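Lecture 7 notes: from sequence to structure.
We start with the chain below.
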Amino acid sequence: MLHKILSEYLSMIESAAGQLENAHTERYEEEIIRSDRLNLRIRIRFLNGYLPEINEAVVIEAEKAEYPGYRYHFQDADNRLVFRYDNTPHFPDIETYPHHKHLPENVFPAEKPLLTDVIRETVRYLSAHE
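Predicted C-alpha cells for the same chain:
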C-alpha cells in the first residue's frame, strides 16, 4: 500500500493538472517503486503548443517527502526553453548546488520549488504571453 504522504501528494498533483485550461495531458506516469518511493513523469501540452514536462523521484524519509531527483522543464511551441528547475549536479559553484534554475540565457541559484508553484509559474507565463 502506498504511503499516505505519497498518496496525498499524487492526489494534489492530479487535481492541479486537471484544473489547467486549454491543455491536455500527453503523459501521466506514476511508477511505484516501493510503498515509500515513486517516480512521476508528466507531459502537458497546451493548445498554443507550450509544453511543461515534469520528472521527479519522491521518497519518504522520516515521514517527510524528499526529492532525490527532479526536473521541471517548460518550453515554447518551437521547443525553445522558457525555464527549467533541476538538481542535476553540474553547476558546483552555484550557492544552491545542486539545485538551480535555467533560463534561456543563464543559470541561476534556486531552491527546489514545489511542483504546484511550478504549475502556477507556467500559467502566469502563459497568461502574460498570450
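Points to note: The mean pLDDT is 95. The radius of gyration is 15 Å.
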